[in-house]
Amino acid sequence: MALIFSPLLLFLSFMCFRLLGVMPFTVIMSDSGVPSALVDGPQTGFSMNKDGARTDTREQEAVYDIMRATGNDWATDIPDVCRGRWHGIECMPDNNDVYHVVSLSFGALSDDTAFPTCDPTRSHISPSITKLPYLRTLFFYRCFSYNPQPIPSLLGQLGATLQTLVLRENGHVGPIPIELGNLTRLKVLDLHKNNLNGSIPVCLARMTGLRSLDLSGNKLTSIPNFSFPILSIFDLSQNLLMGSIPSSIGACPGLIKMDLGHNQLTGPLPYSIGTLKNLMLMDLSYNRLKGPLPMWIRSLISLQTLILKGNPMGPTPIPSDGFDGMKGLMTLILSNMNLHGPIPSSLGKLPGLRVLHLDGNNFNGSIPTSFRELESVSELRLNDNWLRGPIPFGREMVWRMRRKLRVHNNSGLCYNANSGLEDSGIGPCDTPRP
């Protein structure tokens, strides 16, 4: 039985996994409200006990082929696959009480999710998948890693019904087939962590109803100019993307998460990003983006997490009012960016800030006294800069952060007595400084 979540729960689950430091999974979103030849009704095999109901025989034979192709020969002993009560298959009845397969899921997603596992040495996607004319969800997780193979182009034949396609960590090789552009009803496309290469096909822009696009963890090299009107999740991190970030990204007004981190992108941040009023997380870390930090960042009024570390955007200062008004900002990571000048006191006036990393830059001057007002901060990194003067934090704030307060390698910093900073790697203020 597939997991059914709303788009809001999709994002919340992502954020929870993110905070825990765990790579999130794409969950399968409900397709309720989409016109269908099937009648509304239960979607789990556990409830299909209606007298006279039966599974379409052609679809049943197709499921047998698909199960054999993944090493699950046991399925051929089940006389009715829709009423056989196993997790990983969902069926719905039509007006004649004939059940049709609407969802197939494979792979050990978690200890609590008993999808059929795959034999990784010989599994493949059977062409019989095209004989399931009502299929909405297709999910394969770690099924072909010992038998690397391209994504079969025949999946493009599922365009009339398919809404969720997840081929996650399967070892797929080669380019993304252009036939996937025929999946115009797709809402979720997840090809995370395979060995896909080449350019991202422009034809994916035909998926105008796409809500979540995850192509992260591959070897893709370029982003085309395309827009998705209702896209919420956009993850192309950990690829080999080169060139600039396309300005067409601003034509995705529904974006909540944008992750382009760990690539080779160059140039400045396009102004069009500033129009993404719903954006809550933006990660552009470890690219080759140039500065200075644009003033339009503060127009991202919904932003909660901003990660720009590892981009050589200096030598430049942080504008004194560069983050004014961003009351929802909780995580700000600006490490190793060659930023210069003083740390603006306005950063201490962001009431929701919990994580602030400014380490590995060339900041000078003192730590702003306004930082004492960061009552929610639990992690602060100021190490490896050129800061001077007394650290303005009280004992309670220091104890709250403990080892997550890092101020070492600032030769001019010192601490006052009874501040709780005796083990911070710096000296007391009553000791003569060099």
From TrEMBL:
GO biological process, one term: response to other organism
Alphabetical keyword list: Cell membrane, Leucine-rich repeat, Membrane, Repeat, Signal
Name by which UniProt lists this protein: Leucine-rich repeat-containing N-terminal plant-type domain-containing protein
Predominant location: membrane
A Pfam cross-reference name: LRR_8
Organism for this UniProt entry: Prunus persica
Keyword Transcription: no
Protein localization: Cell membrane
Keyword Repeat tagged: yes
Cellular component terms (Gene Ontology): plasma membrane
Signal peptide region: 1-24
GO molecular function: signaling receptor activity
Highest rank taxon of the organism: Eukaryota
InterPro entries per record: Leu-rich_rpt, Leu-rich_rpt_typical-subtyp, LRR_dom_sf, RLP_Defense
